[in-house]
Design the sequence.
């Protein structure tokens, strides 16, 4: 039984009452010694007393049912009034006349911590809202493991890194019990980081070349390749291929990589194109001193025609000039149409150097090596003179430079 004291009769004096939880029976002894009994409540209910009806002269009896959150109030006239105020598990504050006795209420979470996505290095704050009595305590957890010192209603993960991504929750407790929040996921966006830089390459003129980069970071990564710092239209994947590379394609290639968390630019990868330059006797880079004849009859010629001049004293020359883009080592070749009337010692020279005599009576219709030379970028020349044994002709057709 539960004893209670209150002025049930309204005579200004406290009466004695007993509430029997197992039966819901109330027994009240008034000041005149009379006993008044009534039924209100059931097993598990909590008895309450108070002035629930302002029209009643005395104290009213009530019970709170924690299993349903329902209240049952008996007025002085014997009528029963019910209402909902609470939920399963709530415990009321019970007034046994005076004073008021506080009964502990276990924690209940009203606002769960919310999942978040932040960029690497940013702060992430999780917050919970809960009710309960007495004072609540908090313990935040990361992947179900307690976080040292995280014992208030909010928790801030400063300068979030990839290792901090995961599930955050909080245990809210007091002397009446505890409750664990739902998980709040922290996602950390990681900016791009290059793990393999594009590599410098050297290719022959006309060949294709591919630059590649490897990077990590939160998807999706975007790519923009650049040539000498200028965006290349359409070059937006992790590799870039330049087909048919020419001297004008030489330079520095790089790539900018970006995502929601930031961007990074690769180092420069230099492209060197080993150039091949050909000057024919009909090209702008070909010039003559003296009067040379033009012919087309030989089938082993280069191009549509060739020039020739009778051997003599060297006053007549043919010169091929190529503007080479690169300093380097070059093989230099000459092409002629062979014949019995050709000079057996046609004198070529490279950039005004010593004569290189070639037998033009043989090996016609192919590129014949004059030699290998270290040449500077810019204009380079090959000359052929008529300074050879008389009675023959020297043939001026094509010259080729091939970088090694």
Sequence:
């Amino acid at each position: 039984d539960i004893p209670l004291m209150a002025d049930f009769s309204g005579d200004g004096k406290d009466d004695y009452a007993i509430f029997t939880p197992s039966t819901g029976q109330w027994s009240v002894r008034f000041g005149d010694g009379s006993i008044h009994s009534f039924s209100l409540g059931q097993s598990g209910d909590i008895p309450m007393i108070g002035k629930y009806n302002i029209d009643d002269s005395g104290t009213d009896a009530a019970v709170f049912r924690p299993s349903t959150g329902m209240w049952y109030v008996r007025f002085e006239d014997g009528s029963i009034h019910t209402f909902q105020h609470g939920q399963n598990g709530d415990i009321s504050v019970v007034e046994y006349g005076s004073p008021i006795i506080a009964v502990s209420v276990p924690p209940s979470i009203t606002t769960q911590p919310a999942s978040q996505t932040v960029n690497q290095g940013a702060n992430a704050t999780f917050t919970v809202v809960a009710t309960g009595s007495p004072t609540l305590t908090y313990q935040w957890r990361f992947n179900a493991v307690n976080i040292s010192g995280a014992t208030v209603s909010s928790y801030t993960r400063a300068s979030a890194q990839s290792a901090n991504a995961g599930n955050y929750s909080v245990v809210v407790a007091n002397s009446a019990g505890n409750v664990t929040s739902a998980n709040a996921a922290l996602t950390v966006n990681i900016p791009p980081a290059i793990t393999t830089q594009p590599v410098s390459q050297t290719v022959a003129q006309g060949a294709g070349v591919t630059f590649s980069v490897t990077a990590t970071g939160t998807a999706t990564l975007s790519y923009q390749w650049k040539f000498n710092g200028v965006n290349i239209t359409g070059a937006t994947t992790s590799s870039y291929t330049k087909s048919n590379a020419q001297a004008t394609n030489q330079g520095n290639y790089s790539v900018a990589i970006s995502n929601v968390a930031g961007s990074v630019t690769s180092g420069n990868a230099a492209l060197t194109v080993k150039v091949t330059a050909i000057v024919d006797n009909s090209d702008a880079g070909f010039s003559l001193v003296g009067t040379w004849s033009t012919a087309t009859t030989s089938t082993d010629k280069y191009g549509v025609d060739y020039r020739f001049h009778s051997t003599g004293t060297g006053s007549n020359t043919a010169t091929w000039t190529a503007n080479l883009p690169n300093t380097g080592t070059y093989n230099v070749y000459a092409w002629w149409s062979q014949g019995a009337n050709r000079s057996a010692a046609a004198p070529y020279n490279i950039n005004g150097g010593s004569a290189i005599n070639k037998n033009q009576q043989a090996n016609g219709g192919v590129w014949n090596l004059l030699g290998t030379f270290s040449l500077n970028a810019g204009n380079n020349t090959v000359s052929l003179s008529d300074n050879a044994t008389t009675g023959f002709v020297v043939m001026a057709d094509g010259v080729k430079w091939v970088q090694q």
User: Anything to note?
Assistant: The first strand starts at residue 2 and ends at 6.
